[in-house]
Amino acid sequence: MANNAVSLYLDPQIRDWVLFPITLVMILVGVLRHYVVVLLQSSPKKLPRNALREQRALARSQILRATAAHSPLPPPFYNSMSENLSEGFAAGTYLKDGPPKEGEAPASPLNPLTDPSAMDGMMAGMKTQMVMMVPQMVIMGWINFFFQGFVLIKLPFPLTLGFKSMLQRGIETPDMDVRWVSSLSWYFLNFFGLNGLYRILLGNDNCEFGSSSYVGTLFTRATFEAADSSKDMSATPFAAANAAPAGPQDYNKLFKAEIDNLEFSNAVYSWIGTDVEERVLKRYSRLPQTKAR
């Protein structure tokens, strides 16, 4: 034979009783897990007015800084907002407990292990992660027990040998074409590749969107690190500022750091409406000849 490549012929029953069932089970389990997580989520507790005011003041300052280079605010409004925020941060006006009294140390953030609201959030997160992890471990054990060593499909495009360890897990044959995919690797490919389908079925804010990046690292962190690259990259300063803090925050220190940040942003401030009349006329070739020269 001139060609040393080994040819494999798969039984069509492997497609019907192994390939399709694994894919279907993972899709159905993902949809079911999404609705279980939705049922387990408790309604968020309302923040006190002072705590909400504290967070929003920091968010306004962050948005003001993020848009300083091309700010939609005219200079009088921008300077007024920047000065008012800086004065409020320096005086502690926006702190939920009020400005610290003379000779009194500012209150430190609560320990999350002793804060009931933080404990509720930690317990909710643990329940969510258990719902995400347990079904994947069960499916992986089911595939290993019933379909270990199965070759399911051949990819229609060429690949380099670097993909062999990722596509043929559980087979470990040196002479097999890299395009053949084992049952265990098919599980991982579905695990990381079904995010798009979940967005169509469940929406962009579904619970399955962030599950693969967390659970997948427990199994094959090094092999599949680059596979889960379908994160939403449309982040804006407004989205970042409105995001809930991950844990207890020392807003007194954050406000002091924000004062310096506002001073730096003042140096790069530029109003987007500067000379807007001339720019519009120049774009449509309507500038007077004297100004055009």
Commentary on this structure:
By secondary structure, this protein is mostly helical. Helices cover 56% and strands 2% of the residues. It has 12 helices and 2 strands, in the order ααααβαβααααααα. The chain has helices at 12-40, 49-66, 75-91, 116-146, 164-167, 183-193, 195-202, 211-220, 237-242, 251-267, 276-283, 289-292, and strands at residues 151-154, 180-182. Strands 1-2 form a two-stranded antiparallel ribbon. Helix 2 packs parallel to helix 10 (251-267). The longest helix is centred in the middle third of the chain and has 31 residues, at 116-146. The protein is flat. The model is unreliable at 213-235 (pLDDT under 50).
- Estimate what percentage of residues fall within beta strands: under 5%
Radius of gyration: 28 Å
Q: In terms of structural class, how would the helical and strand content be classed?
A: mainly alpha
Oligomeric organization of the protein chains:
single chain
- Measured distance between first and last alpha carbons: 78 Å
Shape: flat
Low-confidence stretches: 213-235
Trace the largest sheet across and list its strands.
Answer: 1-2
How many helical stretches?
12
Portion of residues within helices: 55-70%
- Output mean pLDDT: 79
Using DSSP, what is the number of strands? 2
Question: Biggest β-sheet, characterized?
Answer: 2 strands, antiparallel
SSE series: HHHHEHEHHHHHHH
